[in-house]
Amino acid sequence: MLLQTTGDLVDTAARLSTEKLAPAAPAIDATASFPRDNLDALSKEGLLGLVVPTEFGGLDASSKVLVGTVVEIAAGCASTAMILVMHCCGVIAIRDHMKGPGRAEILTKAASGQHLSTLAFSERGTGANFGATFTMSEQDGTGYKLNGEKCFVTSGGQADSYVISARAPGATEVTASTIFIISKDNAGIAFHGTWDGVGLRGNSSVGMKLSDCTVDGAAALSPPGEGLMLAMSTVLPLFLLGSASVYHGIALAAFEACCNHIKSRTYTHNSEALSNLPHVRRSIAEMKVKLDSSRAMLERAAEARDAGAADAALQLMEAKFKATETANEIAKEAMHVCGGIAYTGSLPIERHMRDALAGTVMAPTSDMLLDLIGSAILAPAK
Ligand SMILES: Cc1cc2nc3c(=O)[nH]c(=O)nc-3n(C[C@H](O)[C@H](O)[C@H](O)COP(=O)(O)OP(=O)(O)OC[C@H]3O[C@@H](n4cnc5c(N)ncnc54)[C@H](O)[C@@H]3O)c2cc1C
């Protein structure tokens, strides 16, 4: 039974965002440190259990509730929100596909905030084309042995489990993958590099090497060779919804910081308020219209996902594209209308602008989404 009412949870997320996440965000950004305290604060409110069924103590949030919650968290700290989204993507794969007693243990721990998960799909060689993998799995008794290298693993070295893609045993086709869950305690995993991205600087999106990493048979979440199907049907819709929510939260925060600055700025030479300039008012109005239209698309996509609508995938892709573009447009315009003071970094707008940039390059990237949306529209009728 999905949690349908947004009220309490979104209020809790908004309170946390204002009281805890937003004040901590500048230091997380400046030092590129993993926001462990923020995650502990989310855990205390059960928010790491957003997609965990209630029977394991989770919230079993509907898409609409998830959107409202993640937006609020992202408005406070985008890194924390992205870590939460990647966690939910890992958890949903475990929830829907893991067999054996390990599943209940992980879900129960996730619900109580004692287990953080994430996705490790990307590889240097294949880049944003996450369906292709050169990480190899081979049969090892009743289990598997994994070898290969992943990159950009959000929460790398910090998470308790990693949901990863690897080529199915004996497969030659690059997309013939299996999805596995690997515990941080597995031998044969090592993390390398330091995350020093332009934005989302708390993410710890580092490299991960698997060297003869052996897992038991229950670690395979998909049948051999059917990993891409799992990724597309279970993980991708949630990733699109969650990351669209992150970028919408960034856009909201940039807009709010912009309005606050404009309302507080008055010139000393003529006592005129910045808010009295017609082009500034017009700019604010245009930003608001963009924000509202992006939010409407996000809510519509959330409803389509919950209803299992035939065009849900299309709507989710559109929503992620729109939220990303809107966040980038609003942060850039906010920099413009707030002037040199924004450019110095004394307002949070420049951080929001850097955080928003990740949306265009995180797969499926904006380029890929437009190609997929265009292809879906132009596909011959069946
Ligand atoms: C902050 C951040 C967090 C991330 N977290 C994770 C994570 O937790 N797990 C994970 O698995 N990955 C993660 N990624 C990786 C991400 O999803 C991409 O795989 C990665 O950004 C690709 O970088 P690249 O330089 O290899 O891009 P490239 O693949 O080289 O792309 C370069 C450009 O080409 C375009 N392009 C490439 N292929 C196509 C195509 N087929 N069609 C259209 N355009 C194309 C892209 O849009 C892009 O603009 C993260 C990335 C970032 C930036």
Q: Could you state the CATH homologous superfamily of the largest domain?
A: Butyryl-CoA Dehydrogenase, subunit A, domain 3
- Estimate the strand proportion: 5-15%
What is the percent of helical residues?
Answer: 40-55%
Give a count of the beta strands, DSSP E runs of length 2 or more: 7
Low confidence ranges: none
Number of helices: 11
| End-to-end separation | 35 Å
Structural class, by secondary structure, is: alpha+beta
Order of helices and strands: HHHHHEEEEEEEHHHHHH
**CATH T-level fold name of the largest domain:** Butyryl-CoA Dehydrogenase, subunit A, domain 3
- Principal-axes geometry comes out as globular
Count of discrete structural domains: 3
Strand order of the largest sheet: 2-3-7-6
CATH class of the largest domain: Mainly Alpha
Q: Compute the gyration radius: what is it? A: 21 Å
Query: Which cofactors or ions or other ligands sit in this model?
Result: flavin-adenine dinucleotide
Q: What does the main sheet amount to?
A: 4 strands, antiparallel
The CATH architecture term of the largest domain is: Up-down Bundle
